[in-house]
Amino acid sequence: RPSPRPRVPTLRRNGERGVPSTRDRYGIRMRWRRLVAFAIDWCCMLGWVAVVAAVGIPLHLAGAIQLTGALAQNLIGLTVVVPIVLAAAWCESHARGATPGKLALRLRVVRRNERLSFPWALLRNTLKLGVPWIIGHVAVFALVDTSASGTTPAWVLWLLVAAYVLPVLWVISLLLPGAHTIYDRLTSTDVVSALRARG
Fold first, then answer.
1. Full-prediction pTM beyond 0.90?
2. Whole-number Å distance between alpha carbons of 121 and 110
3. How far, in Å, CA of 76 to CA of 80, rounded?
4. Cβ of 71: how many Cβ atoms within 10 Å?
């Protein structure tokens, strides 16, 4: 009599049951939770952008702030993105290890199954948010400055392409088997279920 066929091992990871083998550590539900969490965080970021615009535009119209020159333009970009990166890093290195979006979806960020430290959280969010944002900011202002001459340098176009490609790569890497984003791989971090992390 042939021996019974062994059952395929399953994982319980990030709150998901029945994920076959270790090739794909996330289920579809977990991927959507991360995407929804990022959408909530993005709304929070837009709120900060609105605050900066509400303060900066009247000051610019009054002549208190000049937007001429690459230094001034880049300082404006840093004023927007640096607080966002710092706030996200603080949230992910805090006791709950989660930004508002992750907190709402009961997720948290860990590094090698341990609480994420602030330097690693800062690096993670710099790669995730800061780099694409700054590249896009520099590309847009460079495009505006060089458009008056009638020719746009190739490096400006490459920056503009990179500003769009990087966020797309982040999303694609989340949807691929394993669902480990590039910035998570570079920082050895992972997003897990908050309930699982507590257990």
1. no
2. 9
3. 7
4. 8
